[in-house]
Write a structure and sequence with these properties.
279 residues, alpha/beta, two-stranded parallel ribbon, six-stranded parallel beta sheet
Amino acid sequence: MIKKNQEKSIIFNSRETKKYPEIDEENVRWYPTKVYDFTTADYKNLVKHWENSSTEAALYINIPFCPYFCNFCVFVKYPPKITVIKKYINALLKELSIVEKYVNNFTTIWIGGGTPTSLPPKYLEILLNNISSLVDKKREIVIEAEPTTVSPKILNTLSKFNVRTISSGVLSFRDETLKILGRKYTSEYVAKIYSELKKLGFKINIDLMYRLPNQTETAIKNEIEKISELEPDHISLFRLMVFDSTPLSKMIKKEKIVYPSISASTKFLSLIHISDPTR
């Protein structure tokens, strides 16, 4: 049960963000699904943005499709329907052609989402074929992947275009927590997939969350132990933010789960830093 003295304002209202490309938050919730008419002011502003950019730039590509929707997610996302994917990829390639004119060579290309690996291999190959010419072969292309979407066909496509780093949003290694978050895999499944990826020579980044529902100090220590066993190349750490209108916020309001206090989550964060398994 949630204690009466639990810290207030634990659930956030959805926030307005600036439009692309001047987005004011790390969390991208808005992305154009249409390519602007090349005579409009929006197009001119986009061109102006890239004209004023340094030639040393990194490129983030958002793929807003997911095989399923998680209970905490406030990102813009769509089911991976072929008709929508085709329109989106075509629009994205047109925008890439604009960027190519003003940026000679990207230092890094990060393909995120959403779940980029939920794209059918055909459309993932079309995307990678177009962006591979924008980055030096010695530089890095990273793609985000949800564990259940890492199929042999997807891995073959990634290898074909020299994508050697996979960033996976595991979030937690507690099956109870994964179920609350709405994830469709188990910690055992993740361990199996990661072992296979390591054997194939992929570099692995793990996205881990803290301040998760029902999280305790003991649970954090167990998470660290399991991550250490996987020996990832990098760990990205995120604090769970619960937004109003999500299924997770409704669970908290109905007192079905406990959302840890800020002071407790700060202690969790300290434990993770002290036990950093990538050191």
